[in-house]
Design brief:
alpha+beta; eight-stranded antiparallel β-sheet; 19 strands
């Protein structure tokens, strides 16, 4: 692909700005500012089209001038994944928003890609419905959640956002509006668009399944100290067949060996007066938390059974813990996602601890073997690279993987963000079919696609 002008001062830049303004309207097209970047790569223009047809015109303009386009929703995950090779036009989807007017009780709803997920949930809640999506990023749009395939605790029972899809409407690299869904082939394409970070198409809207809001919700929590203890407890939870909606783990960096408990303290913990009360533990103790949903009486009965199964320290609460639906990493950290069969999750966490030289904060869907971890942003890139190599070596034999979601620029340049990818050939074929000229977020996908 021929290199486009690298500066907005080059001849033709003002003409492109004028044309973007004609397409989007005067307040909605401009030269990019310092905050308009994707994983550290600055954009040249920002366009905020008012609807699918205007977005299509932006893509056609980009095609005529050999410019790249990178979609942006709320920007909550704009630094996830690889930095694109170039960001000429940042296509902001904020005006591609809205919720379809479906009859009350309809099994699906169509939502604009730029609609904040919390707005969708608030609207559906008025009729006693919800999407089974609980992405952790605050303020995330539906399109951003789908483009990043971001899932929260409810993935345990309901699967990923992609699993909730009925169909999607999207724009291809040439600005043609298309639809994917309905049959097996259509759903396969829709699922390829999910997680593609806008590099295969620009999502316009999605039709998803809705469900009734559960009448009862209870969080059953138990303190944990070691990954092996977590492993045993998860086996107990899943074997009990209590139909959990989520099984989440929080292991802070300070979690250490389980403290010794005297016989008197152990006896007190088993006393009937302690039923439902939290047992005080060290500040570094982690928590395993199970969410139960359903009818109020049924949920209470299942919660009581689970508290008895989990033993001393287990409690039931009508409220989620403070860390629920939150990542263990913050801005500037190196954020990891580990995926491994649940039987090997403890081995993965131990491998990470061994490679890092001490406990690392880990949090996520332990009941599925999908967790996130954080390495300090100040850690030298070569140290991060050695930790990744060690962890991936352990995971390779266990059919697992470790992906770097985001990291400081120096770390990005020094490490392989993705590791081994079995589906790279399929992804490459999809890119060549949907975006043969590599105008949509080039380099954003694995393999430099």
């Amino acid at each position: 692909m021929a290199a486009a002008a690298s500066s907005t001062d080059r001849p033709g830049a003002l003409d492109i700005t004028r044309r973007l303004t004609e397409i989007c309207g005067p307040p909605f097209a401009r030269f990019a500012g310092p905050a308009d970047e994707v994983a550290g790569r600055p954009a040249r223009w920002v366009a905020v089209p008012g609807g699918p047809h205007a977005a299509a015109e932006v893509l056609r303009l980009a095609a005529r001038h050999d410019l790249t386009v990178v979609p942006r929703g709320a920007g909550t995950k704009i630094d996830w994944g690889a930095a694109p090779d170039r960001v000429d036009i940042m296509l902001d989807t904020g005006r591609l928003a809205g919720i379809g007017h479906e009859p009350v009780g309809a099994p699906t709803t169509e939502v604009g890609a730029g609609t904040p997920l919390r707005a969708v949930q608030a609207t559906l809640d008025r009729t006693g419905q919800r999407l089974a999506l609980d992405a952790p990023s605050p303020g995330a749009t539906l399109g951003g959640v789908l483009a990043a395939e971001e899932a929260g605790p409810l993935r345990h029972r309901h699967g990923s956002p992609c699993d909730q899809l009925v169909r999607v409407r999207y724009l291809d690299a040439d600005g043609e509006l298309a639809e994917a869904g309905g049959g097996a082939a259509g759903l396969e394409l829709a699922r390829l668009l999910c997680g593609s970070q806008g590099a295969l198409g620009v999502l316009v809207s999605a039709t998803l399944r809705v469900q009734a809001v559960p009448a009862g919700r209870v969080w059953v929590s138990r303190p944990v100290w070691t990954p092996l203890e977590v492993h045993d407890l998860i086996r107990t939870v899943l074997a009990a067949r209590l139909d959990p909606a989520a099984v989440e783990l929080d292991l802070p960096a300070g979690a250490g060996p389980r403290p010794r408990q005297g016989s008197r303290a152990a006896a007190m913990a088993r006393h009937p007066s302690m039923t439902g009360r939290a047992i005080a533990g060290p500040a570094g103790a982690g928590r395993l938390v199970v969410l139960l949903e359903g009818g109020p009486a049924d949920v209470v009965e299942r919660a009581e059974r689970l508290v008895a199964l989990l033993g001393a320290g287990a409690t039931a609460s009508p409220a989620a813990p403070e860390w629920w639906r939150r990542y263990p990493f913050g801005p500037g950290d190196t954020a990891l996602r580990i995926e491994v069969p649940i039987a090997d999750l403890h081995a993965a966490v131990y491998a990470l601890r061994d490679a890092a030289g001490g406990p690392v904060p880990v949090r996520g869907s332990a009941g599925l073997g999908v967790v996130h971890a954080a390495l300090p942003g100040a850690m030298p890139p070569d140290r991060v690279a050695s930790i990744l190599a060690a962890v991936r070596g352990v995971l390779l034999a266990r059919r697992g993987r470790c992906v770097v979601l985001s990291a400081p620029a120096a770390v990005r340049r020094a490490v392989d963000l993705w590791g081994e990818l079995a589906g790279l050939a399929r992804l490459r074929a999809a890119k060549e079919h949907l975006d043969p000229h590599h105008r949509l977020a080039p380099g954003r996908l694995p393999g430099g696609l």
